[in-house]
Design brief:
Distance between the termini: 64 Å
Strand order of the largest sheet: 1-2
Helix content: 40-55%
Structural class: mainly alpha
Low-confidence stretches: 1-6, 162-186
Mean pLDDT: 75
Number of strands: 2
Largest sheet: 2 strands, antiparallel
Radius of gyration: 30 Å
Order of helices and strands: EEHHHHH
Length: 186
């Protein structure tokens, strides 16, 4: 009985209630059906069943003497399934496309020193995005130049701040500050 709640019904009898999901979207009937069909149609058994269905259709060809309606059965069935699958696929695609930008937005929000103006970046006009992109490309070019000169490319300390020399690596293989030499593609 773990996970189930009981409540008193209208006539005083106990009735069982399913626990509420943490995710309210899963309580919507269409969402449950869409999620179930996504799992069912993505399962390898669904592919095997589709192959068996087509094999069965091929076997029935001689029974129907390869009449004009015989191929129409398969095309009608596949067209109907394809039509419904477009809507089934679009539902989780819409949820994913709404959720994906939120993940980097949360990282930007949570990191101290991050530019909060970059939150919701996908809503900016194309020209604004290109200007920001140009700024970041310039910052990357300068950071690669700093690395080649043995400078840090971040404002934060490395994990291993102490210079540690390997017995195999000679002094020429290490940069000042204990950092190894990085090659930058041109």
């Amino acid at each position: 009985m773990q996970g189930r709640q009981t409540a008193v019904g209208p006539r005083g009898g106990a009735r069982r209630r399913e626990p509420r999901s943490r995710y309210p979207y899963t309580r919507v009937p269409f969402a449950r059906v869409a999620t179930w069909t996504a799992h069912a149609t993505g399962h390898p058994l669904a592919f095997v069943l589709a192959v068996l269905l087509i094999a069965g259709w091929l076997v029935t060809g001689p029974l129907f003497r390869f009449s004009d309606t015989w191929p129409l059965v398969l095309t009608t069935g596949t067209t109907s399934v394809t039509f419904l699958m477009v809507f089934r696929i679009q539902n989780p695609q819409n949820r994913d496309s709404a959720a994906v930008p939120l993940k980097p937005d949360e990282l930007i929000r949570a990191v101290a020193g991050a530019h909060h103006a970059l939150l919701d970046l996908e809503e900016l006009a194309e020209g604004d995005v290109e200007r920001l992109r140009g700024r970041y490309q310039e910052m990357a070019r300068r950071a690669r130049g700093d690395l080649l000169r043995g400078l840090r490319d971040t404002d934060t300390a490395d994990l291993a701040e102490r210079p540690q020399r390997s017995a195999r690596a000679g002094p020429a293989a290490r940069r000042p500050g204990g950092r190894s030499r990085m090659t930058v593609p041109s």
